[in-house]
Amino acid sequence: MMIESLLLAVTRVTTMLGQRHLTNATGFFFERDSRLYLVTSRHVVLDEASDHYPDRLEIELHVAPDNVAMTRQFSIPLYRERKSIWREGRDSAGAIDVVALELERPALPETLLYHAFTPAHLVKELDEIEVGTSVLIAGFPLGFHDTLHRLPVARQAVIASAFGIRFQGHGYFLTDARMHRGTSGAPVVARDSTQGAGRVELPWMLLGVHAGRMDVANRDVQQDERLDLNYAWYADVLLTLTQDAASA
After folding, report:
1. What is the CATH number assigned to the segment(s) 5-247?
2. What is the pLDDT of residues 85-112, one digit of tens each?
3. pTM of the predicted protein model
C-alpha cells in the first residue's frame, strides 16, 4: 500500500507536563545537512499568554515500512539543564511563531517510515505564488485523524494575501480555509509540478507554517461569522533556525 508522501511528513504532537497531557498540535519534519528537525509553532512549546508551559513533547512515528498502522510514541524534552533546546527567531516586528527542534537520530527507532521537507522545497521565486493559489494544510484539527493508520487529514485553502509581502508588517501571509485548534504547526504547501511522482517523493513547495485563525476585534458575534482567515509564517525562516547547526 502506497501512502501519499505529504501525510508521512506530518506528525501528531502532544504537549506534556510530566505525565499530564496538555494540548494537541501538529508538526512536520525538516531535514538539512543530515540533521532532522521537528517544526511546529512556538506557542505549542511555550505560550506565556495562556499559561502554557509543557516540559516535553510526544510525537507519533511510523516504524514499520510494510505496516503503516504500526507507530511508536517518541518523547522530546524541551529543556536541558533548565534551558530551552528549541530554536526560535525574531524579526523587526517581534517574535516569530515557529520553532525547530533537532531530533537526535541515535535515539530514534531503527526503522522509520517518514518523509522530510528540505531547503529545496522552499519557494525560490515568490512570484510563483499568486493570491488565490490553491494550497493544502495537513494536520490534526481538534486531534481528528485516521486513528487506524495514524495519519493526518488535509484541508484545502487558498492564498488570501499578497504572497511575499509581510501582512501588516509581520512575517506571515494569510490563507482562506476553515481551520481548527490542533492544526498549529501544520505545513502549508502548494503542488510542485517540477518534482517527481507524488507517492515517491515530496512534490510540494513548502510555503509556510500555519499558526492560527485571524479575526477582527470589533466583530459582532451575534451578526458576523468568523472571517475564516488564517495566518501562516513564511517557511524560509527555517533556513535561519537551522543555519548554525548546518554550518557547525
Report:
1. 2.40.10.120
2. 999 988 776 789 999 999 999 999 989 9
3. 0.90
